[in-house]
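Intended use. Records like the one below are meant for learning the mapping from a protein sequence to its folded structure. Do not use them to infer anything beyond what is encoded.
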Amino acid sequence: MYAVIETGGKQYRVAVGDRLRVESLPAAQGDSVKLDKVLLMAGGGGGEGEVLVGTPHLPGGSVTATVVGHGRGDKIHVFKMRRRKNYRRSQGHRQAYTELRVTAIHRDDAKSKPSPTPAAAEAEAGAEQ
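Structure written out for the chain above:
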């Protein structure tokens, strides 16, 4: 089973046991973090099974992860220059991150329902007309 989550303005495809670096989160090392913004879930072994797609988020879907640690990424050098104008600006940046290890993917079946297949959606649209 895997899920697509959103955190820090970015989207990540995660499965149980994955380690990922996300934008810095206010949690201590070893804490458990619950990520509620689940955009998609696909179940079953071998990639088979139902696919649940949110609009934009799945109600009742969540991913639980443990904070492995915090750190800062590689340095990025920003250099601006205008030729022949004696204008030079140099700036550096290191982005802070939180490293997570995904421990569980949850879904509440009572709140979420699978997205219809294209054939079922066409049949339903035809019945409404």
